[in-house]
């Protein structure tokens, strides 16, 4: 992942192909590739598979809703593992809160970070086990 910008790195990663496909459908790959500094919380394919089917179908069929969901996972600025704890503004206009629970990094009290601070040419990527749905 380190040799590519974040949009392309996610789109090319089979383990997060659902997120990559959604970024492509929403037209966000180029947006992510063009900027110099992001933090992206990337749900695994399993995280998407655990979403209620009707919710997943509704999001997949509504580009605006899909874009909002994806932007809820993106924070401007590259946050290292030392900087990630706290509350950050997402591109969706919402907040994402990251805490440490006995050595486990938790996002919005629901998602566990399973792989932290993976670097791309323009981002820090945090792989998570739950999709962050907007409030």
From TrEMBL:
Domain FAS1: residue ranges: 3-132
GO MF annotation, one: cell adhesion molecule binding
GO CC terms in record: extracellular matrix; extracellular space
InterPro entries xrefs: Adhesion/Biosynth-related (IPR050904), FAS1_dom_sf (IPR036378), FAS1_domain (IPR000782)
Gene3D superfamilies (alphabetical): FAS1 domain (2.30.180.10)
Biological process annotations from GO: cell adhesion; extracellular matrix organization
Pfam families in the record: Fasciclin
Protein name: Fasciclin domain-containing protein
Natural source organism: Actinoplanes aureus
């Amino acid at each position: 992942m380190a040799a590519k910008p974040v949009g392309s790195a996610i789109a090319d990663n089979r383990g997060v192909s659902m997120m990559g496909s959604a970024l492509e459908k929403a037209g966000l790959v180029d947006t992510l590739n063009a900027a110099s500094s992001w933090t992206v919380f990337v749900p695994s394919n399993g995280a998407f598979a655990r979403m209620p089917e009707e919710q997943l179908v509704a999001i997949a069929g509504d580009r605006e809703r899909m874009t909002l969901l994806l932007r809820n996972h993106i924070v401007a600025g590259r946050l290292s593992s030392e900087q990630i704890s706290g509350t950050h503004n997402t591109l969706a206009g919402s907040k994402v809160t990251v805490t440490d629970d006995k050595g486990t990094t938790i996002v919005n009290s629901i998602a566990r970070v399973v792989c932290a601070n993976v670097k791309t040419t323009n981002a820090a990527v945090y792989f998570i086990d739950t999709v962050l749905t907007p409030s």
